[in-house]
Amino acid sequence: MTGADAGGDAPRAGGPPGGLVVISGPGGVGKGTVVRELASRRDDVEVAVSATTREPRPGERDGVDYHFLDDATFTARIESGDFLEWAEFNGRRYGTLRSAVDGPREQGRTLVLEIEVQGARQIRQRESEAVLVLVVPPSEEELLARLRARGDDEETVARRLEIARWELARADEFDYQVVNDTVPGCVSALEAILDRAGATG
Ligand code: 5GP
């Protein structure tokens, strides 16, 4: 195992050499943007492609943005034990495939999961070495402005704000909270967390 003889901190003794970092946060907080930017800055970081039963949005590609599965396939894959975690969000199912995580971690890469709070909780229970980060908005007013800027109707905005409040109320379940005030600032804060978690740039 890499560095096993180094004597110092061995945060993942017995586990795969690559780390696992969960990044959660309400819709509209900009976590997708910061996660993409983080992955482009760091060669040692990989973002897991999740599976979902929701429809692709314009421009989204199967196998790149998500693995888009129908309901029956998603259910079959739950029953086969293929998911490290899964959750229902806004009436659709989303899940992290073990296959997207295990191989890269064995090769020493740090896996980033961009998932919602219920999934983060499952990771906390199953993967004790995982580092959980909640990306939070500078204020609720700013979050509301970002949600409205997506062009959704007011009912959708109100529903998303309600989910956001629920998620933000669970902030103490996370190891770190990072405010997404500016994208570069937020990404730098995430990089510092990765470095503490053992990833090497
Ligand atoms: P969206 O439909 O906007 O792409 O994603 C909706 C929510 O599902 C976001 O909060 C996103 O982080 C979350 N999500 C995406 N993939 C997964 C996953 O694999 N597991 C869980 N639990 N949540 C996910």
Helix and strand string, N-terminal first? EHEEEHEEHEHEHHEH
Assign the CATH topology.
Rossmann fold
Task: Indicate the mean pLDDT.
Answer: 91
What is the helix tally? 7
Report the radius of gyration as a whole number of Å: 17 Å
Question: Per CATH, which architecture?
Answer: 3-Layer(aba) Sandwich
As a percent range, the share of strand residues is 15-25%
**Termini gap:** 19 Å
* Total domains: 1
The total beta strand count reads: 9
Instruction: Point out poorly predicted stretches.
Output: 1-11
Biggest sheet layout: 5 strands, parallel
Helix percent band: 25-40%
User: Which structural class fits the helix and strand makeup?
Assistant: alpha/beta
Strand order of the largest sheet: 2-7-1-8-9
The small-molecule ligands in this entry are: guanosine-5'-monophosphate
CATH superfamily (homologous) name? P-loop containing nucleotide triphosphate hydrolases
Task: Give a short summary of the structure.
This protein has helices spanning 31-41, 71-79, 98-106, 117-126, 140-148, 154-168, 183-197; strands at residues 20-24, 45-47, 51-52, 67-68, 83-89, 92-97, 110-114, 131-136, 176-179. The chain has 201 residues and is α/β, with parallel strands linked by helices.
